[in-house]
Specification:
single chain; alpha+beta; two-stranded antiparallel sheet; 31% helix; elongated; binds iron/sulfur cluster
């Protein structure tokens, strides 16, 4: 019962497609190669400067590179020797919630050897059955379908 409620909550209230499972191994990799998305992935220093006024998290970041996705940042709160966050207890929500599925939508992936995984809430079979049902329903109603 709890599983069903959880699934409903994630799918229909939070509108999520993945569960985050696993735990953090405190490797610090996700704090070292960061893309920032605000409407679009940040591409220029000017865009980034404007963004820094909006949320303190962005003031922790420093530009270290640029690639085909956008500017690449690292967080200055990461202790490079211990790989620990210097403000762990006060770290922003965005860090507490990492990794989120939006990462995939920006073309990103999980940091190598991250202790978390993102697992689909619905299995392939469940999605397939849902789509099939919809197609059959549309056929019965005489609607055209794009699938
Ligand atoms: S604030 Fe801490 S957890 Fe968040 S990106 Fe920086 S070092 Fe990582
Ligand atoms: S990459 Fe994954 S395991 Fe490593 S610090 Fe980030 S969340 Fe934790």
């Amino acid at each position: 019962m709890f599983k069903k409620l959880k699934k409903f909550f994630y799918l229909y209230i939070l509108k999520k497609k993945y569960y985050r499972v696993g735990s953090c191994k405190a490797c610090g990799r996700c704090c070292q190669k960061i893309y920032v998305k605000h409407k679009n992935v940040i591409q220029t220093e000017e865009e980034f400067k404007k963004l820094q006024k909006l949320h303190p998290f962005y003031t922790y970041l420093k530009i270290i590179d640029k690639d085909e996705t956008g500017l690449v940042f690292e967080c200055m709160n990461l202790d490079k020797e211990t790989h620990k966050c210097k403000i762990h207890k006060k770290r922003p929500g965005i860090c507490r919630r990492y990794p989120q599925e939006e990462l995939f939508m920006m073309g990103g992936t999980l940091a190598e050897n991250c202790g978390y995984r993102l697992e689909p809430i619905e299995s392939f079979d469940e999605v397939f059955q849902k789509v099939s049902k919809k197609i059959n329903k549309n056929k019965k109603a005489g609607h055209k379908t794009n699938l």
